[in-house]
């Protein structure tokens, strides 16, 4: 079941990139995660395999019985290959921590549309996540809150009247909510203003991270912006505050782009042109360089300065050129050099077809 | 006269790149220079303007009267703009030293085919040069020796039975001959073997220099290889020895290319592809990057790994993208940034037409 289901995922575009709004392309995708634990059971950071199996058995049956996830796919993490785990990470369906070997109770459940996933026995008993294209935190909240309510009716969550939801890590206590938006900020990077913007934001209780969240490197001008604190405000207040700040970052990015267009049009066109030229004709292409180039081309499309590719093709390449995806396509484990060669080939062929 | 004649040069391809032998493309061009001084007259490094004018008057009339240069063009260096001087340098018709301000007696004479030029009152009274495409030192020697013989019949050159021809700089005494070949060595550079080859050669009394001779930087994998000593051997012996060594370098380059093709084909194709991609789509292109890319593409054509451009187009770009040529085309002085922009534009348009 595992293998077939994963291969099914491979065939369709990731939900959070499909049908993205071309007018709101600086914000690539939005995501809300809720951390929940079952009351009366030891939290996963300290629990035995049998306790985790018990948690899995309870949560899985409730999710299935109540049709929390439409046409649910269930993946036992230990039974997945390294490539498949990395594949799910690349699609932002689970966390980096969940990729590591762990208890047999660790399980990922995904709905058919690939928009909602629940990690069972990650750092907390349940981590429910909803992801959508664009800047859509409020609509995501409406849906995930409804899912959470339906879960709450069947599961008694660890909750304290003063503190709120209890979690393994104190930084998640309260709402247990982490909302984040992935932003494409090549304008700020090229203008050399990104650091100043990041410094300003971090004073406001907002965190800026790389593509794969905590501890991951920032590549391809892609940044995840999320709330630092989960306590002392309601979910909607946190979301509203985050959204306001993200709107400001987006405005900074737009201004940086316009300023570059006004004062350094050649510089901008040169970056866009080189990104395309290298992608179209190279035979060795690293993941980092591909992401960087795609980020620049995405900006080029936004600014109507680049017409050789549409946003859908860029989105497709954004996902299909990632390491595990490449290995899934070729049905085998590839070395770094083999991946860089295959990535270049896929990109070359795609770009030659599109031109 | 000066201006019209220079503009005429602009319209035709440089002689030493036109009709180059596609089977001998590692050796781009060969050149022989002869240093001669008129006996009884102070050498230019120490002579007055009036003495230099006298030298010019004597030599110029002899060159014209005896039709030494076919349809001769004559350029008084002081009357040329900086751009025009640089333009003549880029076409390898005169030396870097000759570009500097100097006595009014400094004059450049060129034949119509642009293959033969005579600098009057450079370091020596006369520096006669013949340049041709490919590895063609022996045929060049036949022609330049004939020119030198015809000059000798009309001019008494400073000559000493023991030392040979006397020159301003002792390093040129004897034959007064400097023979050189411009080589395109991207294979050795990419394989990391160039330094070893250069070290080996320099022990054999052979000098390796950059694109514009003494003191100039090596760019675009282009190297000028020439004889160090001008004394103790006949011209033909020097030429034969130089030719043998150059043939060895060419063989090293060929081996390096084959080895790369055998063991690192992707790496090679990647370099070729990127060179083309950047040239085709960039909007800012430095002289150095253009030369580098053209050098790689030339190798790509040689190896039949690259078919999007022919050798003639590469040769044309090789010359037309140089700083003074760009300024000649645009009929005005350009800043570095303006040149980089114009260079990118010319290259882009050329490559888009060719594809």
Task: Quickly list its features.
355 residues, 12 helices, 8-stranded antiparallel β-sheet, homodimer
What can you see in these coordinates?
The structure is a homodimer of 355-residue chains. By secondary structure, the first copy, chain A, is of the alpha+beta class. Chain A folds into two domains: 2-257, Creatine Kinase, Chain A, domain 2 (2-Layer Sandwich), CATH 3.30.590; 265-353. In chain A, 47% of the residues lie in helices and 15% in strands. Chain A has twelve helices and ten strands. Chain A has helices at 2-11, 49-65, 82-90, 137-154, 186-191, 194-202, 235-263, 265-281, 287-302, 311-320, 323-329, 336-354, and strands spanning 27-36, 73-76, 107-110, 116-120, 126-133, 159-160, 164-165, 177-184, 206-209, 222-227. Chain A has an eight-stranded antiparallel sheet. In chain A, strands 6-7 form a two-stranded antiparallel ribbon. In chain A, a hairpin with a 5-residue loop joins β4 and β5 (126-133). In chain A, α7 packs across α8 (265-281) and α9 runs antiparallel to α10. Chain A binds chain B through residues 266-267, 269-270, 273-274, 276-284, 341, 344, and chain B through 266-267, 269-270, 273-274, 276-284, 341, 344, 348.
